Amino acid sequence: MTDSAFVAKLNEQIAYEFAAAQQYIAIAVHYDDETLPQLATLFFQQAVEERNHAMMMIQYLLDADEKVTVPGVEAPQTEFADVVAPIALALDQERRVTAQISSLAGTARDGGDYAGEQFMQWFIKEQVEEVSKMSSLFDVADRLKDNPMDIETWIAREETGAEAADPTAPAAAGGAL
């Protein structure tokens, strides 16, 4: 049986994941408005990933026969001072989510919810990748902030397209949409 503290925190995390997806959409729209299509595409893709993370959490709770709360989220930030500010926000967001995911795994462990703890392991691995990706992007953008087209070139060179599906990823509610 799933630990009730873990279920409550996982439902909270669903809100954070949906909020992250909304924030990434807002960042993508900002970059699209600035005619920076590589940055826009990257953040639209990040938004889908965050949304899918929420859907994975929903599916886990459904499979565990637990109550799912589909939360509303606060409006995302839509105005940014420069080309680097949205990436800095994204990096901060990924670091915050990493702490939240670690806390969730700890809550499951402390509650003796080994299935919940095992479920969180994929997200721990994913957060290492996400923080690394945003950290690298931030470093490059900060160095190249005076010439955003060089950031675009770097992304086009480094981001080789859609990654192969991770066979170890949890199932998302509604399937891979």
List the SSEs and their pairings.
Blueprint: H1 4-33, H2 37-63, H3 85-110, H4 114-143, H5 148-158
Helix pairs in contact: 1-2, 1-3, 2-5, 3-4
In short:
With 177 residues, the protein is an all-alpha fold. It has helices at residues 4-33, 37-63, 85-110, 114-143, 148-158.
CATH third-tier fold name = Ferritin
Supply Rg.
17 Å
Total domain count = 1
The DSSP helix count reads: 5
CATH architecture title: Up-down Bundle
| Main CATH class | Mainly Alpha
Q: What is the arithmetic mean of pLDDT? A: 94
What oligomeric state is this?
Answer: single chain
Count of individual beta strands: 0
Superfamily at the CATH H level?
Answer: Ferritin, core subunit, four-helix bundle
Helices and strands, in order, run as: HHHHH
Strand fraction equals: under 5%
Helix/sheet category:
mainly alpha
Major β-sheet profile: none
Q: Quote the distance from N terminus to C terminus.
A: 29 Å
**CA-based shape:** elongated
Please mark out the parts with pLDDT under 50 across 5 or more consecutive residues, or reply none.
none
What is the share of helical residues? Answer: over 70%
Question: What would your notes on this structure say?
Answer:
The protein has 177 residues and is mainly α. The chain has a single domain, classed as Up-down Bundle (Ferritin), CATH 1.20.1260.10. Helices cover 70% and strands 0% of the residues. It contains five helices and no strands. The mean pLDDT is 94.
Please give a handful of descriptors for the protein shown.
70% helix, elongated, Ferritin, mainly alpha, 177 residues
